[in-house]
Amino acid sequence: MISINTVRLGEHLPLLDLLPADAPIAWVRGGDGLVGWGVHASTTVSGPNRFNDARTWWHNQVEALSVADAVHASGTGPVLFTSFSFSESEESVLVIPKVIVGQRNGKSWLTWIGDIAQPILPTEKTVSASAKLTWQDEPISKSDWEDQVINLVREIQGGTVDKVVLARDQSAHADSEIDVRSVLRNLANEYPSTWNFAVAGLVGATPELLLRLSKGMVTSRVLAGTISKTGDDERDLALAGSLARSSKDLEEHNYAVRSVADALEPFCSSTNVPESPFVLHLTNVMHLATDVTGALVETTKQVDSFSLLEKLHPSAAVCGTPTQKALALINANEGINRGRYAGPVGWIDASGDGELGIALRCGQISGKEIRIFAGCGIVNGSLPAKELAESEAKFAPMRSALN
Predict the structure, then answer these.
(1) What is the pTM of this model?
(2) Which residue among 3, 218, 276, 366 sits deepest, i.e. has the most Cβ atoms within 10 Å of its Cβ?
């Protein structure tokens, strides 16, 4: 058996400042969350059974651990960090760090694996110079992407499908290796209300919580319907009102909410789906948002985060509706490989509780290369120029964080 220890720490910690340069892992929002480094074990899964395969691998790893947990809370003891691909045909990544530091509601803790002394945490953050980026030509031109929007609107008007999410990507080459930590810190400073994440080179700041499972209670924050901010408070207040009344955006949002509520309902004794969304204000955009909550049914068969992920992904927020028809249109029209963009990302503990977002406002870093992503929900009434502008606004967080 391999020992794993969790101990309570006294002080408030700047989590993102603790990370080393080598393969940092993070899930942090507003200063709370989990960060990790070092690799105790890692694997990849793919195919139609990937969520079940991930559970099996995780359980096997946990069974080999001798756990001493002095904190006993969600996210203590053994923790798995996951970054699933959007498509089942692509590889999803599972990582168990050697060292994890967690913080929630003023309480912090440290977990480490192995028969070693308690790790000493760094007291000063490392600051690296920003790499100079050269952006490449996009694989699909802006005009061709707008043509794709037109084609999808025709499909929707023909009754084939109700909504399809169409994504774009942009790539850049840097003059030196891109430091994930500096990107994370920039995102956290600029977008403190989002979940800042880094797993196996995928780094971003997602405003969309796909799943939080804690002691039988499940929560999902659904976002769909977006408008850019101007920076003028009075003007943005008026825009927020127009977003809340927009029939096109409300239609798009309703598809996303229903897909999540329908996925959770079989697992829950009760669910709460608010009748109308609220407007979530971020630094550069506003979204229609709804928090769907539920209480899990008590059964002999354990329902865990893997069970829920299998039903929740892909939601209408990142795919469309009906799901299979939307997927077919994405594969026929999008022209890019999403990789782990728009897939579930976050952490799961040994009890099956966890917190996972949808990997949005993100980029895949590999040495000196980065590829960033943005997507828009296309429905009847979508206008190509407006969808293109929305996608540009969704690229902005990563482009800004890289500078």
Answers:
(1) 0.95
(2) 218
Length of the chain: 403
In a domain, 126, yes or no: no
Rounded Cα gap, residues 338 and 115, in angstroms = 40
Task: Compute CA 299 distance to the chain's CA centroid, rounded to the nearest angstrom.
Answer: 29
Residue 288: which pLDDT band, with cuts at 50, 70 and 90?
very high
- For residues 388 and 376, give the distance between their C-alpha atoms in angstroms, rounded to a whole number: 8
Give the pair of three-digit tokens for residue 240.
Answer: 């927020």
d(CA 110, CA 95): 17
Q: Which residues face 70 on adjacent strands?
A: none
- Of 84, 83, 68, nearest in space to 36 by CA: 83
Token pair, residue 382, equals 């979508």
The residues facing 222 across adjacent strands are: 290
> What are the tens digits of pLDDT across the range 162-214?
999 999 999 999 999 999 999 999 999 999 999 999 999 999 999 999 999 99
Instruction: Quote the tokens at residue 242.
Output: 């127009």
Contact (CB, 8 A) for 55 and 220:
no
Question: In Å, how far are 5, 25, 113, 399 from 37, measured between CA atoms?
Answer: 15, 6, 11, 25
Count: domains in the chain = 1
Residue type, 338: R
CATH of the domain at 299: 3.60.120.10
Q: Which domain holds residue 210?
A: 2-116+134-401
Amino acid in position 5: N
Q: Please state the φ and ψ torsions of residue 251, each to the nearest 5 degrees.
A: -65, -50
